[in-house]
Design brief:
The complex is a heterodimer. Chain A is α+β, with helices and mostly antiparallel strands. Chain A is built from 15 helices and 16 strands. Chain A folds into 3 domains: 289 residues, no CATH class; 109 residues, no CATH class; 58 residues, Orthogonal Bundle (Arc Repressor Mutant, subunit A), CATH 1.10.10.410. In chain A, the strands form 4 sheets. Chain A has a 9-stranded mixed β-sheet. Chain B has a domain of 277 residues: Amidase signature (AS) domain (Amidase signature (AS) enzymes, Alpha-Beta Complex). Helix content of chain B is 38%, strand content 12%. The chains are: A alpha+beta, B alpha/beta.
Chain lengths: 473, 511
């Protein structure tokens, strides 16, 4: 049933820019300060206070636009989005309406099903609102530290067709923003959050279905679950003949479901108009030239280098460049060892496994990884030992080579010894040996396992395999 | 009691206490410099005037008696120790109550901000404090600067010191009345559509609406951000230029303040008007302008001609569109600017609300007066989806046309002369029930705000009843010095004296 449907997704991403001060005043943007200690008349919207745009915000937003292939407006403006909410002290948010800084960009993504281009409609700058804190004793309180924290909102075209594509896109976007130095994109600090616009339609249809918007998702797993749930919900509705209602929904991580917040009928009229307190934003050719020059190598460029210089596959390279700290690790390892494919394998199979969430730091130094790759490449240790050592040195400054030496973990490639082990294994395990001889070639894995156990996991599995085959043929 | 209007007798005997408050800033400064008077004496004299008259006039919302006297004594000590003091130091000023004063009540004459004391000073207040000016108190006004009579005050209406049955004009009615009634040496007002010039005209004092961007708006509680400007109200033209010297200038905290060098606005004051071309746009003399006002302005035109200026009749054909455009733009901006008064963080909060929506509705319904509500509704409507293009966008187009037509006139002329208002001050209560008629009274002042131009309002004649008639001189952007030059030439050759209505003095005058 699901197979007959196509899911159509567009995203709105809010990303916090990593300036030291807020967008319209000089209050700090540090995360986690005591409530209401980082605010002033301007960000508290006191009567008479006026906003002054932090020029760095324009630079960062334009860099984000350049890094995502956008056209940059030489002249744009800021508008007021009017609505009442207790976390919005001016009762309007300063944002950009019809003249955003950046438009018409795109990103290329790579998924299991190949490469694809995702359109970016626009990127505009805006201020964050405050935070409501619910206290059992005191009721609902407002913390205005976040008021005026600078954001960019990135809006995509409805070009995405699956949770997998969304993940690939968001990972790439996030990587680019981090590479460009405009944001740290720490999801656990709310620095990178996402609204998902989703509709479904029968495959082959050209018009879009009625969409819902799932607000404020701040982790990849929530985004994935919300997409899964919401697409199924909409398909079920269409199947049972109920119309999908255009509405805003929220995702509850506890239940894994989405819930209606408000429908289009009672949506706000934001009464956008140009903010008369702020002059138009001008971006000159000189600024563009300087800012473009300061953008470092982006993921795609690094990826191409990895493929051509180190012989890594495009898929692996895409994965490595998805996080700048991992790409940096890879490059620094590549300067220390020629076994770059092994480095890539270690990173993809082992390092990423330890980076459980997207904000975790890489727990290894380049020297540690390079040393392991070198020992693997020269046959001094086997893969199992490498995994075991990695686990031990994670988060420490221990030298893998010392561990291998001191504990005698070096791979056993001594032919005489291994031949003896193979002989014993064959004698003790006649059944798998017979199975192999009768054509069940997979049975050799069980025999290799027995032999490895006899060498305490240190035997050279390749040699053991060869010896077994020779004996059994 | 002798009344002095132009100068005190130089080298004469010590000025009597009752005369102090009739003196101009320049005269007070000279007496302070010569140590014939102390700032404490001057401040005390003004406080006495306030005590004597303000019960009737109602120019003040707050009087900072103790703080003002303390400051005056401090300044006297500094002066005694030989410190060279700037011209405004030790001279008491009144401040319109929509300009933020740190730790001192700033109410905008609204129940919404009754008791609100901002934690910071407006830039103009910082500037005055740096010059050791004395802030006597905060002046009454139409609530949130919306109105033309100063009757829309939550506290009480202001009365015109020239005739206490009449309105002082608005919205800076308290500022104009305080200067006219000698309750302040000078005052700061704000002008969004005529709020400095019209009350100055109604009260017979001098008011300047500077070019948009000349004076920082930081700390001025916004009514319509693209139109608001702070400006001085004074007894005479030279004083006005002196006060503008003190408050003009680029402010990095206000993006709309212009980064340029503002010269001394008093320089060139005495150069006269010979050779200047002054335009009289015929649309300002249409039906609805009182015959006395017409006669007063035409007489002023003749006076300028006698002084050597050329008078040219011109047309400002977009004038009739300026007023509706102004009401759309100013109300739209106001609807957004005043949205922050929601009862959550400061200001009036309604009790017994069951939900956040109810809290908003009740707080705002109770906190705002009817004129403010009318403008908020007007502006909200104008910005609503589906109406934006027909109203707000159209109004912005009119704005461009009006500014363009002014520019064209200034290619041929140096100044424009017009009435400030179609009538002199009318009676209190006369127009309260007809807001549209009240709005019509702003027709001659709003085009200046729409185009961002500077304009000076100064007395040019008197009605048979003795009420002031004001003329408006309009100039190119940043040509304030020329306005002062022309105003000064007129003032020196055509002095007009207005009396203070005796009925404003209550019995307990404490001198």
């Amino acid at each position: 049933m699901t197979g007959e449907y196509e899911v159509v997704i567009g995203l709105e991403i809010h990303c916090e820019l990593k300036t030291k001060t807020k967008i319209f005043c000089s209050c700090p943007t540090d995360f986690g300060a005591e409530p209401n200690t980082q605010c002033c008349p301007v960000c508290m919207g006191l009567p008479g206070a006026l906003p002054v745009l932090n020029r760095l915000i324009v630079e960062y937003a334009v860099k984000a636009g350049l890094a995502t292939n956008c056209t940059i407006a030489s002249r744009s403006k800021q508008d007021r989005k009017n609505y009442f909410y207790p976390d919005l002290p001016k009762a309007y948010q300063i944002s950009q309406y019809d003249l955003p800084l950046c438009e018409h960009g795109y990103l290329n993504i790579e998924t299991g099903s190949g490469a694809k281009r995702i359109g970016i409609t626009r990127i505009h700058i805006e201020e964050d609102a405050g935070k409501l804190v619910h206290d059992d004793r005191l009721g609902t309180l407002v913390d205005m530290n976040r008021c005026g924290v600078p954001l960019i909102e990135i809006v995509t075209e409805p070009d995405l067709r699956s949770a997998e594509e969304v993940r690939a896109f968001l990972q790439k976007l996030r990587a680019i923003l981090i590479y460009t130095g405009v944001s740290d994109c720490k999801m656990n600090k709310g620095e990178f959050r996402c609204d998902v616009n989703l509709s479904v339609r029968k495959k082959g249809e050209s018009t879009l279905g009625v969409r819902t918007e799932i607000k404020n998702l701040n982790s990849f797993s929530f985004i994935m679950s919300a997409i899964e749930y919401e697409s199924k919900r909409q398909i079920d509705m269409l199947e049972s003949g109920d119309p999908v209602i255009q509405e805003t929904r929220r995702f509850d991580p506890a239940t894994g479901k989405t819930y209606s917040m408000r429908t289009k009928e009672n949506a706000d009229d934001y009464r956008y108009f140009p903010d008369p307190d702020l002059a138009p934003i001008e971006v000159t050719g000189d600024m563009l030239r300087d800012w473009r020059a300061s953008i470092p190598k982006l993921p795609d460029e690094r990826k191409a280098e990895y493929v051509s210089q180190y012989g890594i596959t495009a898929y692996d390279a895409e994965m490595i460049v998805s996080r700048i700290e991992v790409a940096d690790l890879f490059e620094r390892c590549a300067a220390l060892t020629t076994h770059t494919k092994i480095v890539a394998n270690l990173i993809i199979t082992e390092v990423f496994r330890l980076l459980e969430n997207d904000d975790a730091e890489v727990p290894f130094s380049p020297e540690q990884i390079a040393s392991l790759a070198e020992m693997l490449g020269t046959g001094r240790i086997n893969t199992g030992t490498a995994k075991q050592v990695l686990k031990e040195i994670a988060g420490t400054e221990l030298d893998p080579e010392t561990i291998v030496k001191e504990r005698g973990l070096e791979q056993v490639s001594d032919m005489a010894l291994l031949e003896k082990v193979v002989q014993e294994v064959l004698e003790e395990n006649p059944k798998p040996a017979n199975d192999y001889r009768s054509g069940k070639t997979a049975a050799i894995q069980a025999l290799i396992g027995k032999a490895m156990a006899k060498t305490n996991g240190r035997g050279n599995a390749v040699i053991i395999g060869q010896l077994l085959k020779k004996q059994l043929s | 009691m002798r009344v002095r209007h132009i100068a005190y007798p130089k080298g004469g005997k010590r000025t009597t206490m009752s005369e102090i408050t009739t003196l101009a800033i320049t005269e007070l400064a000279e007496l302070l410099r010569a140590k014939e008077l102390s700032s404490a004496e001057i401040t005390k004299a003004y406080l006495d005037e306030i005590k004597a008259k303000d019960g009737i006039i109602g120019a003040y919302i707050s009087v900072f008696e103790e703080a003002a006297l303390l400051k005056a004594e401090e300044i006297d000590k500094m002066r005694a120790s030989g410190v060279d003091m700037p011209v405004l130091s030790g001279i008491p000023a009144g401040i319109k109550d929509n300009i933020c004063t740190k730790g001192m009540k700033t109410t905008c004459a609204s129940k919404m901000l009754d008791g609100f004391a901002p934690p910071y000073d407006a830039t103009v207040i910082e500037k005055l404090k740096q010059l050791d000016a004395i802030v006597l108190g905060k002046l009454n006004m139409d609530e949130f600067a919306m109105g033309s009579t100063s009757e829309n005050s939550y506290y009480r209406p202001v009365r015109n010191p020239r005739c206490v049955d009449s309105v002082p004009g608005g919205s800076s009615g308290g500022s104009a009345a305080a200067v006219a009634a000698n309750e302040a040496a000078y005052a700061l007002g704000s002008d969004t559509g005529g709020s400095i010039r019209q009350p100055a005209a109604f009260c017979g004092v001098v008011g300047m609406k500077p070019t948009y961007g000349t004076v920082s708006r930081y700390g001025l509680v916004a009514f319509a951000s693209s139109l608001d400007q702070i400006g001085p109200i004074t007894k005479n033209v030279r004083d006005n230029a002196l006060v503008l010297n003190a408050i003009a200038g680029h402010d990095p905290r206000d993006t709309t303040s212009v980064n340029r060098h503002f010269g001394d606005f008093t320089s060139g004051l005495e150069e006269g008007v010979r050779g200047l071309k002054i335009a009289l746009p015929r649309e300002f003399f249409a039906d609805g302008v009182s015959s006395e006002v017409k006669a007063g302005i035409l007489a002023a035109a003749s006076a300028f001609e006698e002084l050597g200026a050329g008078i040219i009749e011109v047309s400002l054909s977009t004038l009739e569109y300026a007023l509706p455009a102004y009401y759309v733009i100013s109300s739209a901006e106001a609807s957004s600017n005043l949205a922050r008064f929601d009862g959550i963080r400061y200001g009036h909060r309604a009790v017994n609300s069951d939900s956040i929506e109810e809290l908003y509705i009740n707080s705002r319904s109770e906190g705002f007066g009817s004129e403010v509500k009318r403008r908020i509704m007007l502006g909200t409507f104008a910005l609503s989806a589906g109406y934006y293009d027909a109203y707000y966008k159209k109004a912005l187009q009119v704005r461009t046309l009006v500014a363009g037509e002014f520019n064209a006139i200034f290619e041929k002329c140096d100044l424009i002369l017009s009435p400030v208002a179609p009538t002199p001050a009318y009676k209190i209560g006369e127009k309260v029930s007809d807001p549209l008629e009240m709005y019509m009274g702003d027709a001659f002042t709003v085009p200046v705000n729409i185009a961002g131009l500077p304009a000076l309002s100064l007395p040019c004649a008197k009605t048979t009843e003795g009420l002031p008639i004001g003329m408006q001189l309009i100039a190119k952007p940043f040509d304030e010095a020329l306005l002062y030059r022309a105003g000064y030439a007129f003032e020196q050759t055509h002095p007009i004296r207005f009396d203070i209505d005796r009925r404003c003095v209550s019995h307990d005058r404490g001198i």
